[in-house]
């Protein structure tokens, strides 16, 4: 399976190339967020890898009927037709823009794009919260008529709005669906697309994940007290660091164009990376939030089966939460051993993009294959020199060394290295786990 | 309120509806059909009605909106009829 195109929306970046350059320079894309700061003491965390409308070349047209309601958007760069913008929330617009770039990079013809063998599989972690908030507020609180929020609250807020808007833009005649698996959504959609091609159902698929900038989404996590607090913006996302205290809630979009390998080669396409396999499972532990060491180990087993487990880089989920990072590092070490590979945690640079995370981070893995460099894990200053509490219980059957013993696997700077294969890992609430192995095209 | 004054106000509303080609709004008359002539998506009709309520300071009955025809004169008639009830 070939990845032949990519695109998306990235915090504080002009485009895909700018994103790539900033990542390898070791920059943080996390900023203080004015929208969060405006709520003073009512909000706990105020940093984010957010994206503004202006940064994406968009301008909101506000309704004259409902206060602060973006009735539609104008694409100031003329990339998306007005009719398509009218049915899209901001995340769906990013998905359309990313798709446009991915198809251009893939070199698909209009005939290929519009064929029955072309699918669209894109998902989002949240609903169209910005849109729903206005509709519900006007009806339930202000006691106004349903029509005040207009007739586009459904198409701009429905679960598969990103896929639907992209499909309406590119006019494909194959599958159009969304997979939802919380923070594994981005990788889950690409994995599902991989299977559609592998099983011969589609020849090519536009796939990815989106999480549109939304304070409505942010505050849910803020209330859970799982967001990073107390550091300056660029130091807030600190996977594996001893002082980590939560993730940075961020937003973005990652879109890739997948194509059956032989077909891509036959038409002379540039193959960015090859997907070796995809596997997903559930913890089966009956716990919505707590990560599962055994579930993550089974994930690896499913990904490689009877083949030797081998990777030059493990792109981890690495959110910067206290328990999540510890379990994940130990499960990777348990499977991969104590050396011979590097761990990359790109959330250290842009935070956790929720439903977009797996897709955007897959794109960062492609960057690592292209550059033969491993991205830095910013702010991982010190790892715990003592055993984690769960390592001390009798039932623990994982590594018996503290996280600090694996310091050498995690670089704080960009690292030159031969990179032929990368395993990408993402997990989500509900105990869902996803893994994809990608390799350099030979 | 004169019918032409209402039509002028409706055209101002239509210029805010991004799914309508603005070039089609130069020759709107009472016989212009929103759907057939302006290619207005049927889902936009409720947006146009809601904006007309605001612009002309009226509140349509739901049944009247359900029965509303797709020509400009239909909504002009409804605005005048609703204003007469006030």
Model description:
The complex is a heterodimer of chains A (442) and B (86). By secondary structure, chain A is α/β, with parallel strands linked by helices. Chain A is built from 14 helices and 16 strands. The two termini of chain B are 13 Å apart. In chain B, helix 1 packs across helix 2 and helix 1 crosses helix 4. Chain B contains four helices and no strands. Chain B has 86 residues and is an all-alpha fold. Helix content of chain B is 49%, strand content 0%. Chain B is globular, with a radius of gyration of 12 Å. At the A-B interface, helix 3 of A face helix 2 of B.
Protein topology:
The complex is a heterodimer of chains A (442) and B (86).
Chain A: E1 2-9, H1 16-24, E2 31-32, H2 34-37, E3 47-48, E4 58-62, E5 70-75, H3 82-85, H4 90-106, H5 110-113, E6 118-124, H6 129-141, H7 161-170, E7 176-177, H8 185-198, E8 204-211, H9 215-223, E9 252-259, H10 261-266, E10 273-282, H11 293-304, E11 313-315, H12 322-336, E12 342-344, H13 347-350, H14 357-371, E13 373-374, E14 415-416, E15 421-428, E16 432-439
Helix pairs in contact in A: 4-7, 8-14, 11-12
Chain B: H1 3-14, H2 45-55, H3 62-66, H4 72-85
Show unreliable segments of chain A. Answer: none
Strand order of the largest sheet of chain A: 7-6-8-9-1-10-16-15-11-12
What does the average pLDDT of chain A come to? Answer: 97
Report the β-strand fraction of chain B as a percent range.
under 5%
Radius of gyration of chain B: 12 Å
Rough outline of chain A: globular
Class of secondary structure makeup of chain B: mainly alpha
N- to C-terminal separation of chain A? 13 Å
Low-confidence stretches of chain B: none
Helix content of chain B: 40-55%
Summarize the structure.
The complex is a heterodimer of chains A (442) and B (86). With 442 residues, chain A is an alpha/beta fold.
Key structural traits:
heterodimer; A: 442 residues; alpha/beta; two-stranded antiparallel ribbon; 16 strands; 31% helix; B: 86 residues; mainly alpha
């Amino acid at each position: 399976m070939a990845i032949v195109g990519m695109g998306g929306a990235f915090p504080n970046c002009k485009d895909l190339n700018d994103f790539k350059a900033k990542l390898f320079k070791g920059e943080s894309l996390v900023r203080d967020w004015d929208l969060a700061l405006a709520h003073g003491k009512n909000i706990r965390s105020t940093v984010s890898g957010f994206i503004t409308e202006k940064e994406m070349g968009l301008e909101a047209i506000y309704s004259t009927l409902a206060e602060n309601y973006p009735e539609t958007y104008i694409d100031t760069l003329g990339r998306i037709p007005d009719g398509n913008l009218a049915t899209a929330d901001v995340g769906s617009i990013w998905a359309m823009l990313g798709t446009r770039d991915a198809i251009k990079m893939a070199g698909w013809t209009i005939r290929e794009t519009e064929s029955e063998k072309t699918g669209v599989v894109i998902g989002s972690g949240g609903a169209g919260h910005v849109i729903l908030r206005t509709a519900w507020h006007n009806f339930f609180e202000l006691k106004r008529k349903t029509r005040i929020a207009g007739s586009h609250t459904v198409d701009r807020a429905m679960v598969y709005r990103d896929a639907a808007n992209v499909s309406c833009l590119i006019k494909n005649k194959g599958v159009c669906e969304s997979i939802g698996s919380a923070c594994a959504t981005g990788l889950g959609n690409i994995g599902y697309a991989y299977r559609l091609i592998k099983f011969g159902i589609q020849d090519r698929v536009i796939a990815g994940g989106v999480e549109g900038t939304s304070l409505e989404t942010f505050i849910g996590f803020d209330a859970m007290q799982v967001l990073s607090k107390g550091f300056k913006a660029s130091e807030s996302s600190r996977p594996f660091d001893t002082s980590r205290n939560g993730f940075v809630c961020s937003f973005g979009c990652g879109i890739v164009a997948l194509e059956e390998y032989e077909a891509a080669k036959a038409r002379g396409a540039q193959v960015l990376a090859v997907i070796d396999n995809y596997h997903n499972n559930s913890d089966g532990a009956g716990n919505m939030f707590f990560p599962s060491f055994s579930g993550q180990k089974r994930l690896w087993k499913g990904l490689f089966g009877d083949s030797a487990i081998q990777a030059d880089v493990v792109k981890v989920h690495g959110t910067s939460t206290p328990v999540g990072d510890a379990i994940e590092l130990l499960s990777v070490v348990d499977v991969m051993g104590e050396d011979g590979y590097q761990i990359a945690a790109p959330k250290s640079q842009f935070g956790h993009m929720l439903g977009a995370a797996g897709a955007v981070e897959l794109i960062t893995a492609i960057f690592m294959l292209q550059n033969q460099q491993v991205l830095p894990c910013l702010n991982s200053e010190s790892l715990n020199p003592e055993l984690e509490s769960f390592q001390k219980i009798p039932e623990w059957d994982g590594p018996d060394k503290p996280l600090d013993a694996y310091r050498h696997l995690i670089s704080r700077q960009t690292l030159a290295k031969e990179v032929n294969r990368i395993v990408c890992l993402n997990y989500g609430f509900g105990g869902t786990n996803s893994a994809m192995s990608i390799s350099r095209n030979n | 309120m004169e019918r032409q004054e209402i039509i002028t106000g409706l055209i101002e509303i239509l210029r805010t509806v991004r799914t309508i080609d603005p070039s089609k709004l130069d020759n709107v008359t009472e016989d212009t059909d929103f759907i057939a002539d302006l290619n207005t998506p049927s889902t936009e009709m409720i947006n146009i009605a809601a904006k007309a309520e605001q612009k002309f300071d009226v509140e349509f009955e739901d049944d009247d909106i359900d029965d509303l025809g797709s020509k400009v004169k239909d909504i002009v008639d409804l605005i005048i009829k609703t204003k007469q009830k006030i």
